[in-house]
Structure formats: C-alpha cells, structure tokens
Automatic annotation (TrEMBL):
Keyword terms of this UniProt record: Phosphoprotein
Spans annotated as Disordered: 1-81
Biased composition (Polar residues): 9-21
Organism: Rousettus aegyptiacus (Egyptian fruit bat)
Record bears the keyword Ribosomal protein: no
Domain of life: Eukaryota
Stated name of the protein: Interferon regulatory factor 9
Any one biological process term the GO annotation gives: immune system process
Length: 279
C-alpha cells in the first residue's frame, strides 16, 4: 500500500493523515512547495520542538499490521506530558564508528547525502561526508531522494524513498528473527509514544525494566537475508528527546512525571495530524 501517486517530472508528493483516517489505509494529497534546507547541530534547542497543533502525524505503514501493534490494548491515559520535546536525536555510524550527531527541531525531515535547493517545506539533514574512496561513499551516492522521518506526539515514522535496502530495529519490532526491511514509498511507524509511556509507568512503579526508546536503521549494499551477519556500512540511530530525558530522571522527578503521564483530553478533539512532503 503506497502513500504516493505519480505526477509529472518535478512533482511533489505528500503523505497526509487526519484523525478520521487513522483506521483507514494511507491516503495521499498532492501539494506544492518551494525550497530551503537547514541542519541542526546536536545539542541545540528550540521551543518549536515541543508538541504543536500542526504536529506531523503520518500513519503506520503495512509493516505495523504485525504484532505487537495489532490488537495490543494501550490505555488512552498513558500519554506524554503536555510540554514534551519531540525533537529528533540522530547518531550516524559508519562501519561501526560514530561519525556524527544531530538534533532536528522540525517535526519532519529528510535524510539526504547532498542538500538540494529544489526540495522544501522540510528540513534536510545531510549525512556526514566520508572519504571519496570509502565504500560508504559509494553507498551514499545511491541515496538519491533519501529517507523521510517524522517525529511527533504519536511517535517516529519513516518512509524509504531511496533504492538502498534498509533494515530496522525498534522496541516494538514484529516477532521473528528479521531482518525487518522498510518497504519502498510506504510510511511505517517504528516507535509509538503510548507504548513507551505505558512501559515507562510500569518501570517507575517497579513493575518492569526501563523501556527502550531507540530506533535503528541499517543501510545495505544488497538486501540482507535471515542468516546475514555482516555489519551494515551505514547505521542511523534515532530517538525522541523527551524519551531520553524521561529515562534519565531522578526518582523524585519520576514521581512527578508519573502523575503527568495521563490523558490530555478526548483524542477525537486532537489537532489535525501531520503531513510529510517529498519530491
């Protein structure tokens, strides 16, 4: 199920969801946009990172029909605190070595090998530049339209636009050994805030281990099989800032947070969900 439809050359595609579509397949809407690019250094901060009425909210993709997303009952009371920081923390790893970090304040971004002035309406995050003769550079040269990422009050969502095979791991990964591969041009939910808050509340009450909040994308030269043991050339780790912050809280802060992890109102009155623009 693809959230895109083709236009003429230079087309703009959009994955838009509203609360009324949450039980329906992904629907598209074509929009126009014009250009700009920026990059946020790791550790920067902005008030725009908090939840907003225009938060981007793509729906989970077809991968999420697998357990545990399907049929897993989550209490509607377990929601992040209202002032949560949904900025995206990124770590870039080449051949097992950390080569860069970034913090993205905007709610949508595109991971690309080279910035483009023709793409706009979305922040572009450029992969760190490897040496020209390194295998990593050959792989990055195939990144083309890159990968879309949305980080918002509902969780983390990605959409693979490039031809490179990308496997993923996340706290709510489907059962089985994997690898779990991202489908092409489909918006896939990899992290859900309500599951994290549920497990966080249990942890604060001494009823379970600390929840995991990190999503990992592995970029491959060729599609890996079940017995694949080689290390990927490129790895991107991503995490929402609010989740990392809550896991580092002191016991005193944990008690205060536990009282805030509650219902913020009727979900049907929530603001419209987000849109992700891509060329």
């Amino acid at each position: 199920m693809s959230p895109e439809r083709e236009e003429n050359a230079g087309n703009t595609k959009n994955c838009i969801l509203s609360p009324s579509l949450l039980q329906d397949p992904l629907k598209n809407e074509e929009v126009g946009a014009s250009g700009g690019a920026s990059h946020s250094d790791f550790g920067s901060s902005s008030s725009s990172s908090s939840s907003s009425s225009n938060s981007p909210e793509p729906q989970e993709g077809t991968d999420t029909s697998e357990a545990p997303f399907q049929g897993d009952q989550v209490s509607p009371e377990l929601l992040p605190p209202p002032d949560s920081d949904y900025s995206l923390l990124l770590t870039f790893i080449y051949n097992g070595h950390v080569v860069g970090e970034a913090q993205v304040q905007s709610l949508d971004c595109r991971l690309v090998a080279e910035p483009s002035s023709s793409q706009c309406g979305m922040e572009q995050v450029v992969f760190p530049k490897p040496g020209p003769q390194e295998p990593t550079q050959r792989l990055l040269s195939q990144l083309e339209r890159g990968v879309l990422v949305a980080s918002n009050s509902r969780g983390l969502f990605v959409q693979r636009l490039c031809p490179i095979p990308i496997s993923w791991s996340a706290p709510q990964a489907p059962p089985g050994p994997g690898p779990h591969l991202l489908p092409s041009n489909e918006c896939v939910e990899l992290f859900r805030t309500t599951y994290f808050c549920r497990d966080l509340a249990r942890y604060f009450q001494g009823l379970g281990p600390p929840p995991k909040s990190q999503v990992t994308l592995n970029f491959w030269e060729e599609s890996p099989g079940p017995s694949h043991t080689l290390q990927s050339l490129i790895t991107v780790q991503m995490e929402q800032a609010f989740a990392r912050h809550l896991l580092k809280e002191t016991p005193e802060d944990q008690a205060a947070t536990l009282s805030l992890v509650q219902s913020l109102g009727d979900p049907s009155s929530s603001p419209p969900l987000c849109s992700s623009y891509f060329l």
